[in-house]
């Protein structure tokens, strides 16, 4: 009886795998949905600067790629895959709930102004949540796919291959949908006492999906085949390498003969086949040394590139794209480019007679990623041209507003005299200041607006979302936040009223001046003077598409090919070791972002993009040199040679034993004859 037959088959597939597929889709939706809005949560909710937000974001991503090693060891050596998935999914769910709670601003907003009063509470809770999420998502990452593969019998190879295809389709599907949906949820406004961007909902939906993932997985428990833990090959590899290093150190003097490879010092304790397999793995891991630099650039699409998109125009016709939604181009392009590369590009290159080896593909992929950052730098240069120029440390900014009905000449010390017409504003950089103004560009694509009342009567200004209050004569309102799109303002003074309509873009700042000659009525729209204090975002988000194309093409040529190459060059029982090494390069790459961001401290973002591109080009040259001297091997052939040698040694041993037996028998016969002769005598 097949021990894996725990439940019914549906269309030739074990029923249990449907629970696993649904679980994976919900989990990936939960992870990528939370991660899509994470850097904006850091910047706008926790009010961190861009460097700190980027650093914490990449620390979290690095932890997500370090914990799979721990999860694999726990599953294979102690708990088994099923229990590991269940226990760590519970940890994962608690982390997602903690993130959702940390984003509820009303918890500590005692004065109800929309801003948390105890930011330490929100920071601490979010950091605990992110740690639990990293432990959960990383810990189950190496277990779920393998657990799904365990459900198939030996005669279901075709169904197993189809399962893995559907499994990875669910990963991309969950990523794509969540990257579309959670930024939309974030863009909504919610709150008990005051309405703010709804980060709690953007984190709450992924938390709910993680609860669904956990429940669905547990429901299928009775149908699963649960293999017992059989030990983890990574532990055996680490022990063997440790013994070889220790043994070599103890025999470091010249009186001991040198050995061909330093791993040969493990022969006293470990099997020669295992040592040979580890040598093959180490040869591939040596090529991994330059690889983290690729991930340094690649994972910044969720941090630096998202922050870059916040300073851009997101109007695509009538459709408005949120800055964190630009990441959807990555999964879309992956699903498009992978079949094109496999069925068109690679065969065409081969037909042209060019030997496009896996290592050459990886080199080109690294170069394409560098080109993506060159594109990002060019986009940033265009963005910088539209950003406001604020006064330097030795200057202040003075705004002059003529609220009268006739021109005024103004003389300022150290500046040429200027003439201000009626209802006109002038901006000057001088060595003194009389008023306080905006010191940065409005965030999250919002607009900041204020009204100045130049009449001798008070005016009340309201909108459907914001009440600017009563503005006294010859006075101004405080800045209020207005979302993009069309807004209708209602101006009231006694029984008189005026409807004023303005269409706002992203990230602008405006002063609306009500002149002394203002007349209420149906034609009041043209009487109000609009001063653009800060230009709205004018560089279109579509300019980011080329950099997403290059980074995704680089990912397809680098990541997909890299895993394929690694698996082809490693023994069958060492795939997990290479998977751990590959994930480790991703983690190191994210740590490099922290180092460069903290050490470089470049004043211009475009210069930082150029720095990262230059570093990757340098690493690309180093990697191509290493690849040039690499010799491709066939691990199965080497293993067969060892097996054949072991068989020959066993045959020789059997022959020697048989020869010894024959010799013993002959000696016994001769001694018997001698004894017989002596007795006759």
UniProtKB/TrEMBL annotation:
GO molecular function terms listed in the Swiss-Prot or TrEMBL record: symporter activity
GO cellular component: membrane
Membrane topology: Multi-pass membrane protein
Protein name, per record: Solute carrier family 15 member 1a
One GO BP: oligopeptide transport
PROSITE patterns: PTR2_1 (PS01022), PTR2_2 (PS01023)
Similarity comment text for this entry: Belongs to the major facilitator superfamily. Proton-dependent oligopeptide transporter (POT/PTR) (TC 2.A.17) family.
Main location as per UniProt: membrane
Domain of life: Eukaryota
UniProt cross-references to SUPFAM superfamilies, sorted A to Z: MFS general substrate transporter
Keywords for this protein: Membrane, Peptide transport, Protein transport, Symport, Transmembrane, Transmembrane helix, Transport
Localization, UniProt: Membrane
Chain segments annotated as transmembrane: 52-73, 85-107, 119-140, 161-181, 201-225, 280-298, 328-349, 361-381, 576-597, 609-630
């Amino acid at each position: 009886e097949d021990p894996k037959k725990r439940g019914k088959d549906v269309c030739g597939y074990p029923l249990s795998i449907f629970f696993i597929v649904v679980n994976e889709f919900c989990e990936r939706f939960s992870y990528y949905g939370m991660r899509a809005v994470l850097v904006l949560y850091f910047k706008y909710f926790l009010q961190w600067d861009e460097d700190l937000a980027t650093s914490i974001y990449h620390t979290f991503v690095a932890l997500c790629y370090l914990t799979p090693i721990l999860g694999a060891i726990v599953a294979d050596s102690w708990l088994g895959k099923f229990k590991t998935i269940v226990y760590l999914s519970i940890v994962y769910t608690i982390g997602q709930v903690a993130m959702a709670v940390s984003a509820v601003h009303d918890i500590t907003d005692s004065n109800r102004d929309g801003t948390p009063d105890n930011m330490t509470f929100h920071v601490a809770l979010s950091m605990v949540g992110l740690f639990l999420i990293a432990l959960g998502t990383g810990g189950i990452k190496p277990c779920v796919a393998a657990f799904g593969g365990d459900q198939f019998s030996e005669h279901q190879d075709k169904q197993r291959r189809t399962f893995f295809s559907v499994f990875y389709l669910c990963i991309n599907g969950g990523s794509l949908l969540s990257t579309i949906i959670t930024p939309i949820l974030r863009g909504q406004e919610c709150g008990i006492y005051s309405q703010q961007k709804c980060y709690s909902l953007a984190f709450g939906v992924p938390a709910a999906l993680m609860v669904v993932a956990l429940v669905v997985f547990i429901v299928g428990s009775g149908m699963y085949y649960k293999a017992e833990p059989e030990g983890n090959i990574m532990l055996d590899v680490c022990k063997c390498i440790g013994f070889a290093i220790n043994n070599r150190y103890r025999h470091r003097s010249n009186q001991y003969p040198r050995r061909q490879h330093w791993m040969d010092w493990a022969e006293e304790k470990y099997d020669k086949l295992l040592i040979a397999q580890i040598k093959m793995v180490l040869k591939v891991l040596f090529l991994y040394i330059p690889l983290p630099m690729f991930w340094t650039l690649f994972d910044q699409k969720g941090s630096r590139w998202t922050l870059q998109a916040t300073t851009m125009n997101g109007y695509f016709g009538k459709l408005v794209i949120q800055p964190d939604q630009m990441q959807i181009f990555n999964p879309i392009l992956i699903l498009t480019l992978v079949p094109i590369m496999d069925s068109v590009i690679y065969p065409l290159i081969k037909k042209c007679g060019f030997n496009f080896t896996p290592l050459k593909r990886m080199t080109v992929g690294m170069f394409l990623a560098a080109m993506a950052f060159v594109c990002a730098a060019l986009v940033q240069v265009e963005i910088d041209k539209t950003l406001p120029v604020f006064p330097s440390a030795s200057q202040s900014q003075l705004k002059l507003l003529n609220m009268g009905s006739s021109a005024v000449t103004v003389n300022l010390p150290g500046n040429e005299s200027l003439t201000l017409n009626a209802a006109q504003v002038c901006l000057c950089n001088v060595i003194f200041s009389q008023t306080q103004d905006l010191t940065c560009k409005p965030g999250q694509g919002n607009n900041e607006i204020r009204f100045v009342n130049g009449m001798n009567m008070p005016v009340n200004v309201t909108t459907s979302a914001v009440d600017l209050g009563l503005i006294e004569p010859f006075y101004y309102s405080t800045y209020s936040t207005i979302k993009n799109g069309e807004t209708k303002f209602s101006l009231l003074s006694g029984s008189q009223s005026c409807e004023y309509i303005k269409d706002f873009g992203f990230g602008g700042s405006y002063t609306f001046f009500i002149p002394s000659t203002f007349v209420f009525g149906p034609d009041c729209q043209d009487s109000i003077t609009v001063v653009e204090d800060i230009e709205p975002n004018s560089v279109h988000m579509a300019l980011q598409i080329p950099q997403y194309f290059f980074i995704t093409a680089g990912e397809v040529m680098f990541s997909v090919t890299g895993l394929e190459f690694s698996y082809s060059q490693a023994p069958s029982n060492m795939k997990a070791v290479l998977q751990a090494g590959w994930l480790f390069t991703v983690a190191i790459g994210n740590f490099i972002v922290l180092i460069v961001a903290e050490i470089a401290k470049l004043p211009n973002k475009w210069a930082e993009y150029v720095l990262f591109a230059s570093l990757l080009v340098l690493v690309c040259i180093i990697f191509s040199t290493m690849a040039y001297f690499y010799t491709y091997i066939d691990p199965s052939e080497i293993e067969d040679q060892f097996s054949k040698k072991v068989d020959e040694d066993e045959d020789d041993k059997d022959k020697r034993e048989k020869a010894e037996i024959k010799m013993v028998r002959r000696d016994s016969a001769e001694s018997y004859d001698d004894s017989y002769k002596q007795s006759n005598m």
